[in-house]
Amino acid sequence: MESYDVVIIGGGPAGLAAAVSAKEHGIDRVLILERDRELGGILNQCIHNGFGLQIFKEELTGPEYAKRFINRVKELELEYKLNTMVININEDKKITAVNREDGLFEIQSKSIILAMGCRERSRGALNIPGYRPAGIFSAGTAQRLVNMENYMPGKEVVILGSGDIGLIMARRMTLEGAKVKVVAELLPYSGGLKRNIVQCLNDYDIPLKLSHTVVDIHGKDRVTGVTIAKVDEKGKPILGTEEYYSCDTLLLSVGLIPENELSKELGVEINPVTNGPRVNESLETTVEGVFACGNVLHVHDLVDYVTLEAQNAGKNAAEYIARVKNNISNKAEGAEISIIAKNGIRYTVPEKININRMEDSVTIRFRVGDIYKNSYVSVFLDGDRISRKKRLIMVPSEMEEVKLEKAKLAAQGQLKTITIEVEKE
User: At 163, which helix (H) or strand (E)?
Assistant: First the structure.
């Protein structure tokens, strides 16, 4: 059984950045395990631009962004296994995986970085009446078919959900000659970035119907049309508001779910809001030596943030290994401080911090649960407000962040809780 210092589960943008970071911080024995046929993950099918503005200060396509990290992996001569499915991780950090070359095999690791990404929510989670005809695809599946497999799913399209992949596919299908009839969104606001609404819908005169959902799918062998209806505040269809759209294809862009089946089997504690692991300031999960980053931790809006987070996870894993090799305890002195999301803040990453373990500052990322205009993000230390910063607009589709300074936290003394909340004027 081979042994490694750090094994990264997933070779997408998070896994690549984490592996490179671990190597650059002094770890020699690094291995990436990727279930697909090539490195790069979801970026390989994202041929649109808009990636890399923060990391590389220029606009790149998804494959171009991934290629830069893949090239770096090869320059550093990092090991990776493709077409490899991890099927189990136990508490001793022993990984069981399978592929065609090695068959069923085991790897022992001193540290693990979880970077499995996320999957799309399917029709089965929506309870839409109707048969199960051909022509219903998740937006990501349609994206792969068009961009990588050179296959057009259909010619007349309705899209349910206004997540970023759905918005991007509205434009992509249009450019390939399809007619996108409408994008329907259950919520009263879009789930995608503002720039994607403008560039993918408005620029192509594709209507977006908020507070609408699909209530019936027509057709038995192939989709022939869908009926959409307006919904009330509880998300229930309103009688008399039904509209019929003829189409041969229905694309679903109805949310992403972090891939944490392996995490749960390992015993990692999961946050029910993010569906991702609970982590501390080092991005370490509740299992010592196991770190998490990218969309397996929480769904990001920009890949640049995934990269920054993954680089941090790789560095922290390297520091963990250094302590292990030098027989230094990884238990930090002092108590962990809980970060509480309150009054409009849905969650925070991380959820706990230890002042003695953190660097000069730590970035807390979060999402709000509604649209807030001319509001404030306030930070309280044991009930005492230490900051109150105005935000012109905050929307659920875009991540927000605050920075906590170590010096300010340490000056508080025996700090127990940090609360982040939205305050109105």
Answer: none
